[in-house]
């Protein structure tokens, strides 16, 4: 990694000033900084961790290699992350998707092809029921203005119920209900009961670009969907290279503790981080609302923003990875993708590197599964992960060369993932505060994006949006 990626903040309370101080060197903060620098502004980025990327991270496998521990996939209409990767010379390759997927339900394992009409949806008894429900969701999502769900004609009604409530009154089979819960688990890593129907509809509406409206299929599919491609060398190559371009403008090990808004002549902000105080004309806070709430603001933020931050929890998520000599499931005609209704892991992917020099299986430990493992020892986590892989991919899966586990719910500077979600009542009463600047303080982060909120693409878009906003305000 570049020298700038490891340099600590100057010791002893150094002082610096810039036009703009960006808090957070995730994709959103780095993109904001890149565009502001390109616009001729001086910028300092303060990052709490010793590395860039935030929720994009190469998890060490213990053998000198890494596997995507956070964000991993990109797909069609995710144009801004695609453009950024291309700019930085980071290539893509297709997620392994040849063969059949595994479906594990009610103690029974079955295989299914994904090139039929249903795409990645497993054929359960409830499948027609499910298709009707998905069709309704798709139609409802069409009336949600992307990124402004509170303006949907039925916003009040849809934000007054959880996705659970809606899914139970709009389906009758256990199969359809399970698969709708699986949809929410695999996209948001929360349970259907945790999230507002309006939030889910906005998520569907946001899964597109300016010319292709969002749709459910694009969220869940591998082929033609958000899981279609991976990055050569791992997704962390993108923030690492972007941060290297910004050089020593990015200061690591510099958690921001307070942001003070100065009045009087010129105004501006004084931002105090461990080891450095930065004065600037504008600040960009580039992270999820829940994590931004750890920063002390003086004077206090407007209630709309302060209360939004109290109501926007992160999903509970981890990735469990097992490494094998070879991707043995491919020999058996399996994609490595699975959906399961029991065990610690409810969704899997083939995380093998492009040269297939070893086989890597990745399993998501989502929502309540993660919450239940909170106090589990590393041995217990490994046993639970391998038990899941064994059920889904057979005995061989129980004897990996090594395993690795990346939790996000206990990461101080993430608080969970993949994204902050809104329970009922939040988007309609507080949603506008997601992006509205508070004096010289501006907000970025994937949670603020219209298109592809929750994804790397949304993070990039939010950084680009906030850079324009700040540049115009300076
Ligand atoms: C397990 C997992 C799987 C995912 N899978 C995918 C996927 O396949 N595809 C996809 O597109 N997206 C995926 N995502 C989502 C994706 O990672 C995020 O949407 C995106 O990375 C968010 O970027 P961001 O800049 O908005 O926020 P972050 O990445 O959270 O960046 C915020 C930054 O601010 C820093 N910070 C926090 N507090 C402070 C402070 N007080 N002072 C200074 N710095 C601070 C943090 O350390 C961090 O670097 C996944 C996420 C997770 C966790």
Automatic annotation (TrEMBL):
Gene3D superfamilies, sorted: 3.90.660.10, FAD/NAD(P)-binding domain, Guanine Nucleotide Dissociation Inhibitor, domain 1
Xref: SUPFAM superfamilies: FAD-linked reductases, C-terminal domain, FAD/NAD(P)-binding domain
Keyword Oxidoreductase included in the entry's annotation: yes
Residue ranges constituting the Amine oxidase domain according to the UniProt record: 27-470
Kinase in keyword set: no
UniProt keyword list: Oxidoreductase, Signal
PROSITE patterns: TAT
Family of this protein: Belongs to the flavin monoamine oxidase family.
Protein name as it appears in the record: Flavin monoamine oxidase family protein
The organism of origin for this protein: Actinomadura yumaensis
